[in-house]
Records
---
Amino acid sequence: MASILRQHAEQLFGAELEELKKQDTDKRPDNWLMSPRSVVQYLLGGKLKNGFEVTPKYIGNKRLMEVAVATLTTDRALLLYGLPGTAKSWVSEHIAAAISGDSTLIVQGTAGTGEESIRYGWNYARLLAEGPSERALVETPVMRAMKDGKIARIEELTRIGADVQDALITILSEKTLPVPELNTEIQSIRGFNIIATANNRDKGVNELSSALKRRFNTVILPVPDSIEEEIDIVRRRVESFGKVMDLPAEPPALQEIKRIVAIFRELRNGVSADGKTKIKSPSGTLSTAEAISVVNNGMAMAAYFGDGRLKAHDLAAGIIGAVVKDPVQDRLVWQEYLETIVKPRDEWKDIYRACRDQGF
């Protein structure tokens, strides 16, 4: 049997979800598989009373997760908002998995997403043969979530056109989905709600209408506060990647992860770690997700084109690719950073040489 490349959260962490449900004694909202307190514990990790270890899915402010989960018990939907790479989609998936046991009821927002992706569509062969009927109706993930009392996810809400976004207003305010062609409507079962994500750095963003904004409670997910927190996030995600992809490489040394995170934080913040030197920031976001991607790519390079041990020359191309998005402006920013920050650090000589060998 072929191995699945990426399992859904409810599959990958099924044992944790089952154990949490067994230990859960708090009140559960209708159609929730566990209580809000247990959902937050699933997200943040920790030991249960019987000693079972739950791995953290989100490393950050506990109160933010409590607010996010509590929102879904009310009549308002949840909007996870923030910079790219701040774990919006990751958190959305895990919340849906913990509440509904199903994180797959998802609409991916793009500039081409139409109203039929949110409300419903039609099987046109049946429509032409039979006319409008329930058999000809094509259910969307949102419609299925309404009928089953589950959580639906809408990724990159602000990438969807404003007129299509507003198809959500009736669903969120009235908790119904009219189907005028059949002279009927779909009424939401208790437990239904929507988690949407939005990226505040996306170019060409379609601003939410005030009517739609009122129907969401917005939780802003920040970049990690401390370098230690960000290093921990990268380490955990990279270890998970290595296991899933079964790479023939050693786990990355913590020192290499620390250096990648330090580079990204300095460029992101526009100042060196000691606060003494101002640095120009590149046009990209250099998020935690980008750092994870660079280390993962470096592990693949080390595994298949090196000796299995992650080294500076395995990481150089990934670092440059993450930083230099604009070939003119970002190239100058990176070259200046290399010469003023990286070169003087004795313990970073290997990174400096590796990046210079790449032509930077």
---
Amino acid sequence: MAIKQITVFVENRQGALVEITDTLAKERVNIRALSIAETNDFGILRLIVNNEGKAEATLQEKGYLIKVTEVVGVKIGDEPGELTSALSVLDKEGINMEYLYAFMARTEKHAYVVLRVEDNAHAEKALTDAGFKIVTLFDIEKL
């Protein structure tokens, strides 16, 4: 079951990011994972949140340009080589990795990773078959 990622196009100026995080905080939307990439004029902020619907509506209401994308969340062991093991599963299945980033929360023995691939269902099946646990919206809400 893919999870929803919100991509926000952010003006590259001082205070722009805090405006977004403050907007979400005021609506009690908790950020569970994030990634930001920048260019000269704007940044691309990717978010996994505990309430995607509320975050999407709030950001649109505030005039932000957003896009919702389905991504795969996978739980991996917090040991050297575990990320390689998960990525190798996808590689063997011919699944192209577009990008990845990690959740902000971790447990003592596990880390959580967000994967953007072309075929979420194929990636989830391959990872599950290889013994990895797929992260669900329920898991995100508990973090």
